Each structure stands twice: as C-alpha cells, then as structure tokens.
Fold:
Amino acid sequence: MKPQDDKLDAYWMPFTANRAFKAAPRMFVAAKDMHYVTDDGRKVLDGTSGLWCVNAGHSRPRIVEAVKKQVETMDYSPAFQMGHPSAFRLAERLAHMAPGDIDHVFYCNSGSEAVDTALKIALAYHRARGEGHRNVMVGRERGYHGAGFGGISVGGIPANRKAFGSLLPRVDHLPHTHNPKENAFSRGQPAWGAHLADELETRIIALHDASNIAAVIVEPMAGSTGVLIPPQGYLERLRQICDKHGLLLIFDEVITGFGRLGPCFAADAVGVVPDMITIAKGITNGTVPMGAVLVRRGIHDAVVNSAPPGMVELFHGYTYSGHPLATAAAEAALDTFEEEELFKRAQELAPYFEQAVHTLSEMPNVIDIRNMGLVAGIELESKPGKPAERAYNAFLKCFEKGLLVRTTGDIIALAPPLIISKAQIDELVGMLGDALKEAGRD
Ligand SMILES: Cc1ncc(COP(=O)(O)O)c(C=O)c1O
Structure:
C-alpha cells in the first residue's frame, strides 16, 4: 500500500475519540512560549501546558539549543553497564532538589514507567529486608498513575481498568478526597477531608494486615481525574500511618513536580517527605520523553547492598533510561526554571489566578471550582444521561476561540505554563467564560 500524506486512518490515537477526531481534526503545527499555532494559522493560548508538561512555555531557547548540541555530539549511549556525564550530573542535581534524604534517581521514559518502576523498587526493597511477603499495593479511587499494568492496577479510573483483565493481584484503594457537599468552591487546600486518610488503618491495614502491605501510592494533587486538591492534614496523616506500620509512601508527582503548585514538588508545598517521588513531564519541559523515580537513601542502600559485589542489584531498566537527549533537555529545563525563578513566579501568580478562575462561578452549569498553585478544576453539572458532553462541548468552543483546555468527564482542568502573564490569565478566563456561556445554551 502506498502511504498517503493527508490520510488520518493509520494513526490509532491514544486516549482520543478517534472517529470524532478524524471527522473534524484539530492539528497543531508550531508552538512558542504561551501559544500553539494550528494548521490553519490560528494562535491558541495554552491553558494546559500541553498535557501538564510544558511548565516553562514552548520551544524555550536554552532547551532547544541543548538538545540540538547533544544530538550532534552523541545521539545515544547504552543505558546498561555504560554511562554518560549528563545523566550523573542531572541525578546529582535532582537529588539536591528533592526533599529530605531522597537522594537517588532511577531514570525511565514516562510517568507510566516511573510508576511501575517505583512499585517494583518497593517490592525489591521489602524483599531485600527479608519481608518479601509485603506485596499488597494501595492506591486511591480516582487516582491516575499512567497506563501500564502496575499503574492501572493502583489507579482508580474504572474506564482505564475495565477492559484489561485481572491486573496486579493484590491491590486495594483508599477513598478519594473530593466531596462536593463538603469542599465545593474551596480555595487552596480544603479544610474538610483529612479523616479519609484514616481508612488506610481502619479498613485496609485491618483487612490485609500491615505485614503484607508494600506501599501506598497517591498523587498529592490528583490532576487527571479533575483536580482533586489534598485536604489540609490529609497527606500528613497518610505519612504518619505509613510510618507506624512500615509501609512505603510514594508520591506520584508526574503533574505536580517542577513548580505546578509553587514549590518544586508538592511534597515541599505540604511539608511531607515521601519515600519515593515519581516524576516525568515537566522534568524536560515536555521536550523529550523522560521519567524518573526519586528514592530515599535507605531504600536504595537496602536493595543495592543486598546483592553480591559485582552483580546487577536491580533487574530493571529501559534501553532509553537516561537517554542523552532527555538528560540534556532536563538540565536545560532546570536551568530555565532557575534562571527565570519560575517556581517563585508560580507561587506569586497563584492568588491572582485563584481570584480570576473563581469569577467563573457565575457561569452556567458550574457546580464547583477548586485550585492550588497554578492549577484549577472547573466542574460542570452533567447533562442528564450524557456525562462528559457538556465539558467536551466547552473544550471545542474554547479551541474555536483560541484556547486549549483539558477535560475529564465534566471537569475542565487549567494548568497554564508558569510563564503566563496576568493579562494572559484574564484572556484565558475571558475565553473560557464565553465558551461556558455558549455551551450552556446548547
Ligand atoms: C500522576 C500521573 N502519573 C502518571 C502519569 C503517566 O504519565 P505518562 O503519560 O508520561 O506515562 C500521568 C500522566 O498524566 C500522571 O498525571
């Protein structure tokens, strides 16, 4: 068969309504700073940092130059039994940025791989200490931890799980923390909900026994299921219970890492040090695929020291772990974040952003608005019998007006690049407000 350039058939798109998309495609062909450019030459304001990843804005010069230079110098270096300097430099830097005694870095290529890696490290750690019976994993309802088998097992999105069989055999889930009756229209961390962490002890540990549980994994702020903000004291409580029973606590910071909530990590924002942090997305500013697990010293040491000298200690890794283009992009992204003080900027802009997004409470069908740092969720009342349709229509109307938003169910998520200006925040909220008004008439 002869390939045809203008055909859309062959590409089976991920997490996309393929037939609807191919009937009315939306194509980006360029991007710079806060904007995309469509194939018909329209500028679109990026209200979602691509897919929560372009934290410093698009095609930033330092990152572009670093990747160009790297690909000319060395395109690839084997990940196993060989190294290259940038991978070590970046790991040292991430270890310094990470909270507490988190000081080791295991590279992979995506958030999904980071999650599966963290779960495997948790199992390897317990086994190295002679507690290999600890193999129950605890996730949370409405959690998203990527699309791998490990990630969908601990994840709590029914649609992502239902077609794929029995998944990991021993998993349980905490309740999610969102209750519109108790915490609707909260600004920042809601006061209600810390007690939901107690279910880890009163139900899950009571059922499985702590001696069988390996780890608890949560997104400190759940992004993909519609911006669920951690209640005040909730993550602290999870930490206490995990400590009491010897469970590892994993924060999945694939979205929250690199300034989304202000400080570099959500762990810093709430003052809780987990045992591992999964990262991806913003680490390279979305430029080159990359993920990593940041690991506490004791976990690393237990696994590494349990193997005989000269032997591979952890039988895990990827051809592209620490790929030179990814590490070059990441080093340059961290330089950009630092030079432009973007995390501080996010923190300073957050109150303005909060004020602006909450003005949308007057718009038709809005039943909740919640926010933290430079992220917000706007929840719409679903049309009877047609869940997700209203938000999807609003998404299409935003796109027509020149704004990219992300929707999940009937929730619209905003997570603009940290370089957004106040005037662009006003523009974003203006376009979204108009789209909601129009969607309300349909
Ligand atoms: C919290 C979280 N974990 C994991 C992932 C998966 O990342 P990736 O799509 O890079 O595999 C995502 C993606 O949105 C995420 O939000």
Remarks:
- The mean pLDDT is 97.
- Residues 110-112, 115, 144-146, 219, 223-224, 252, 254-255, 280 surround pyridoxal-5'-phosphate (CB under 6 Å).
- The two ends are 43 Å apart (CA to CA).
